[in-house]
Amino acid sequence: MSVLPPALLASVLGTLPADVRPGTAPLTHLVSPDSTRPYVTLTFAQSIDAKIAGAGGKQLILSGEESMKMTHWMRTMHDGILIGIGTAMNDNPQLNVRHLPFPVQNTHFQHYHHPRPLILDPHLRLSPTCKLVINAAKSAGVAPWVISARPPKIDGFFANEDDGERLQQWEARRDVLQAAGVTVILVEPETIHPDLPPVTLNLPLPAVLRTLREKGIRSIMVEGGARVIQSFLSTASGRLVDALIVTTAPVLVGRDGIGYGDGLGQVSGTRYLTTELLGRDTVVGLKFAQ
Ligand SMILES: NC(=O)C1=CN([C@@H]2O[C@H](COP(=O)(O)OP(=O)(O)OC[C@H]3O[C@@H](n4cnc5c(N)ncnc54)[C@H](O)[C@@H]3O)[C@@H](O)[C@H]2O)C=CC1
Ligand SMILES: Nc1nc(O)c(N)c(N[C@@H]2O[C@H](COP(=O)(O)O)[C@@H](O)[C@H]2O)n1
User: Fold this and answer.
1) Does residue 223 have its Cβ closer than 6 Å to ligand 2?
2) How far is residue 43's CA from residue 224's CA, in Å, rounded to a whole number?
3) pLDDT at residue 199 greater than cutoff 60
4) What is the 3-state secondary structure (H, E, C) of 129-163?
5) What does the alpha-carbon distance between residue 214 and residue 86 come to, in Å, rounded to a whole number?
6) 53 CA distance to ligand 1 centroid (A)?
7) Integer distance in angstroms from the first to the last C-alpha of the chain?
8) Rounded CA separation 274/216 (Å)
9) pTM for the full model?
10) How far, CA to CA in Å, does 121 sit from each of 24, 69, 71, 228?
11) Residue among 40, 62, 23, 14 nearest 283 (CA)
12) In this predicted model, what pLDDT tens digit does every residue of 206-261 receive, in sequence order?
């Protein structure tokens, strides 16, 4: 069994200094050209027909053993690992590095660097009994941070009698999550006028990234799902991705599967770096010109 990260990761992201054991620390040289945000590596696994999940969002294990291990090495290289609440609710992921070789000393969790789980969750729908929370409570995982936005209380002409109730429910869910060990981080939702509700239910990614950087997160790995991939690749938000690492598995999912391409705007500025065959999968690494 290989005890080193695949060559593709070295080509795209670089390596730790020779005197540091692989997987035990994040890559501190991963620095964004925009100092107000973390370095962003976007990564996911897809089928040949560019689907990342099955019909109805059914989670698919597309990556084979070797490329899944590559993903877990990549996790060790970043300060944070970011997903959308759709993925958190659908997959109940652990976002740890359990597929890496078992360490001779220490537990897996103590030996390897585990990235901080970061969940984009405007309405605080994360379950307080999900695996991320339970693992952290057992000291077998890093406590997640949930990024959210306080529901606006509209006082003006557009005030709605449900607004107060919505805020109360959001605050109750926040209290439950915080009591379970989750840190709730707030960003300002996008508004076009102070009296109007936010234009979108999505959190504005530049504000999310700025806030994470202010809180000491220097690099993140974005794992999905479909809507989050689309948002990060969307040129409307400006250049927010530094590296793109995509695993393609030799399977076809079909038209009912979930893709990320529908509605994706034009994506420009990619620079091809390398391709590596890992088992039956093809992994491609690109960078974005800044
Ligand atoms: N094959 C792979 O590598 C992966 C596959 N998946 C699959 O993706 C599916 C989940 O995808 P989605 O339902 O699209 O959920 P998602 O994980 O992309 O989360 C979307 C939700 O995140 C929230 N959000 C907040 N700010 C956002 C922003 N700026 N942009 C986008 N979303 C934002 C919104 O509430 C939105 O509904 C699951 O079926 C999962 O299995 C997920 C990750 C990786
Ligand atoms: N690299 C990769 N290959 C696949 O085939 C996948 N389905 C995913 N999914 C992502 O990994 C999360 C699950 O993580 P854990 O195994 O629970 O640690 C899942 O939620 C997706 O983000 N990735």
Assistant:
1) yes
2) 7
3) no
4) CCHHHHHHHCCCCCCCEEEECCCCCCCCCCCCCHH
5) 25
6) 11
7) 37
8) 30
9) 0.96
10) 29, 27, 23, 11
11) 62
12) 999 999 999 999 999 999 999 999 999 987 767 899 999 999 999 999 999 999 98
Ligand 1 surroundings by CB, under 6 angstroms: 44-45, 52-53, 57, 59, 62, 83-87, 90-91, 120, 122, 201-203, 205, 223-228, 231, 258
Q: Distance (Å, rounded) from C-alpha 264 to C-alpha 287? A: 18
- Ligand 1 pocket: which of 67, 87, 123 to mutate (most atoms within 8 A of CB): 87
Task: Write down the pLDDT at residue 142.
Answer: 98
Quick check: CB of 76 below 6 Å from ligand 2?
no
Amino acid at 271: R
Complex ipTM, two decimals?
0.99
- In ligand 1, which atom is closest to the CA atom of 44? 3
Give the DSSP H or E segment for 258: strand 258-259
Distance 34 CA to ligand 2 centre (A): 28
For tokens 């449900």, name the residue: 162
Contact (CB, 8 A) for 136 and 146: no
Residue 87 alpha carbon, nearest atom of ligand 1: 17
Tokens encoding 167: 């805020």
The topology under which CATH files domain 7-288 is Dihydrofolate Reductase, subunit A (3.40.430)
Identify which has the larger pLDDT, 175 or 153. 175
Structure tokens at 221: 């790995």
Torsional class of 183: left (φ above 0), alpha (ψ -120 to 50), beta (otherwise): beta
Which segment of 116-130, 140-154, 176-190, 196-210 scores lowest on mean pLDDT?
Answer: 196-210
- Write down the domain spans for the chain: 7-288
Rounded (10°) CA dihedral 125, 128, 130, 135: 140
